[in-house]
Design goal:
Number of strands: 11
Number of helices: 22
Strand content: 5-15%
Distance between the termini: 86 Å
Helix content: 25-40%
Structural class: alpha+beta
Radius of gyration: 26 Å
Shape: globular
Strand order of the largest sheet: 1-2-3-4-5
Oligomer: single chain
Length: 459
């Protein structure tokens, strides 16, 4: 019996040594990407919900015929390739671009399918060779992109695109789940026995902003400036703007990406729009001028009631780890409204409910209230907050289908200065009415407001 016990102890010791060596090896060295499929083992709910979002479908290999949405049933002069030539697809909601590997590089084919308009349009016909996806697209349409090699860990926007390389996080998790680690590590010290941050967990706007903005990389080590149309060598929680030259209204001389009114015209600019909004400055305004800014919600006192609306890191933190007024870092960021794993799809269907969490007390227009009028002249239930405050000014899929994230009213008067869609006519409510009618009605309900909006838009 004694020999059996000794033998069992030796086997346990050997297994412990093997496991320890394996786990410690995974923790050693630089973190690396493990792909979203590995994350699903522990985060099944988030992974399943994420798969239903647009992110994993942004760039993917063709695996089945249904992946290709374009209609090849009848000839079209724009389509000079066969369905069999398509190896990869980009997008699947507004429009779909088709891609083929040529000489080791991903290139777009010369026609795209406009999903919502159900038609083909030309795409990069003359300059497809000047559009290698490694330099133009893959930093945002893939996960774990390496600018030195052009390779990546995963097609589409996976878990690690927002959370950073997951190898250490997975190894720590494995270590915690196996009780044998307690033989060497005191679990009472910390949950994972390490003070090293093993994965990115943040409400920082940079996580979304690294891809939802336009520009070119700045010089980074051996990588010259302007080589890529996206940030490189950047962690999701870092300030990517320090090594990235963003496109903005001031350097857009041809007004290709921005309306002169100061809101986005082209897609992938939500971060730039948001950066100039009051949402981005919500916490800063509260911290710098608390008595004035907090008066409407807490009788002039800065307290947690204000922070719940003015700070994303306060609002989304657990009750036992809320930051203070001085330690909070962010205002109203992307994840204040967008649940990043797709678990709250209803927020997109009924965005007014999300706005009402903070703006319930402000559902009355100051101008309208002074004239004893309701906030909006439209019938209740027919129009929501986003229809006026996030008008569809951004073109994708062949029409203005994406909302501005500047959170700014675009009065009909702005359409006189340039052909910008306005808040009254582009939400499906009054597009059948002439512009003169919209201008008159806006002035009637909000006297003097148009001039203020126009002035703010130019600044």
């Amino acid at each position: 019996m004694k020999k059996i016990a000794v033998g069992a102890a030796a086997i346990c010791a050997m297994l412990l040594a093997v496991f320890s060596a394996f786990t410690h090896q995974k923790l050693a060295g630089d973190p690396h990407y493990i792909t979203s499929a590995k994350c699903a083992g522990c985060h099944e709910l988030q992974h399943a919900s994420w798969q239903q979002t647009l992110h994993p479908k942004m760039f993917r290999p063709v695996k089945r015929d249904s992946d290709i949405l374009g209609d090849f049933s009848k000839p079209d002069p724009n389509v000079t390739f066969k369905k069999e030539d398509i190896q990869f697809v980009v997008g699947n909601k507004w429009e779909q671009v088709y891609v083929r590997m040529i000489d080791g590089e991903y290139y777009p084919l010369t026609a795209r399918w406009m999903v919502m308009q159900n038609k083909w349009t030309p795409f990069k016909v003359q300059d497809w060779k000047e559009t290698p996806m490694t330099k133009k697209c893959n930093g945002c349409h893939t996960t774990g992109f390496d600018p030195a090699t052009g390779k990546f860990a995963e097609f589409g926007i996976g878990c690690e695109a927002c959370h950073g390389p997951g190898s250490r996080h997975a190894a720590h998790r494995q270590k915690r789940q196996w009780g044998g680690c307690a033989l060497c590590h005191d679990r009472m010290k910390s949950a994972d026995n390490t003070t090293v941050k093993d994965i990115v967990r943040t409400v920082a706007p940079s996580v979304c902003g690294q891809c939802h903005t336009r520009g070119q990389n700045s010089e980074s080590g051996s990588i010259p400036a302007g080589k890529f149309d996206f940030p490189v060598n950047n962690m999701p929680d870092a300030d990517f703007t320090k090594n990235y030259k963003e496109k903005n209204l001031k350097n857009d001389a041809e007004k290709k990406f921005w309306w002169g009114y100061g809101v986005s015209k082209d897609r992938h600019q939500e971060y730039a729009d948001w950066s100039n909004s009051k949402h981005a400055k919500a916490l800063k305004n509260l911290q710098e001028d608390g008595a004035k800014r907090g008066a409407s919600c807490s009788k002039g006192k800065r307290d947690d009631q204000c922070m719940d609306c003015h700070s994303a890191d306060f609002h989304l933190a657990k009750n036992d780890s809320k930051p203070t007024m001085d330690t909070a870092r962010y205002g109203v960021t992307c994840v204040s409204c967008h649940e990043p794993h797709g678990l709250d799809q209803q927020a997109h269907v009924e965005p007014t409910n999300r706005c009402g969490n903070c703006h319930l007390a402000n559902f009355a227009s100051r101008t309208g209230a002074a004239a004893q009028k309701p906030h909006a002249p439209c019938p209740a239930g027919k129009v929501g907050c986003a229809d006026c405050h996030m008008p569809r000014t951004v073109k994708t899929g062949g029409f203005y289908s994406l909302r501005s994230h500047a959170f700014r009213i675009v009065p009909p008067q702005a359409s006189l200065q340039e052909e910008i869609p306005n808040s009254c006519q582009n939400s499906g409510c009054h597009k059948d009415k002439p512009l003169d009618w919209a201008i008159g009605e806006f002035d009637r309900h909000y006297p003097g407001a148009a001039e203020k909006f126009l002035k703010a838009g130019k600044n």
